[in-house]
Amino acid sequence: RTGFASALLLTLLGVPWDAVMDDYLRTNELWTGHIGRYPELDIDTRAAIVEARTPYLEAAFEVVRADFGGPEPFAERALGLDAAARERIRADLLEG
After folding, report:
1. I need a surface site. Which of 25, 33, 70, 73 has the fewest CB within 10 A?
2. For 4-48, how does the pLDDT look when each residue is reduced to its tens digit (9 = 90+)?
3. Domains contained in the chain, CATH given
């Protein structure tokens, strides 16, 4: 999902985990109107689908650590972003 991709990018850029999580959870401020998109589902199921929850992102990054050894090896092996590509991304996105 988009939240994971954004969190991964921020992590690769060196953003502290607390700030990454805060950014991920901001989704909940912006998506509150979407809970009504699935009227056939009970409210708890709808909330689980549309809400960003801390355990979701923590679980995703735990898989990244367990299966790949961390975000950098994941980016390289799963996404094809070697160290040079990651450095170009950093140079393009960070100031100074």
Report:
1. 33
2. 999 999 999 999 999 999 999 998 887 766 666 778 888 788 777
3. 2-93 (3.90.190.10)
Residue holding tokens 């998506």?
31
Joined together, the tokens standing for residue 49 give 């689908």
Q: How far apart are CA 84 and CA 96, in angstroms?
A: 18
Dist. CA 1–CA 20, nearest whole Å: 15
Token readout for 91 is 């140079």
The half-sphere exposure of 45 on its side-chain side, counting CA atoms within 13 A, is: 6
What does the longest C-alpha to C-alpha distance in the chain come to? 50
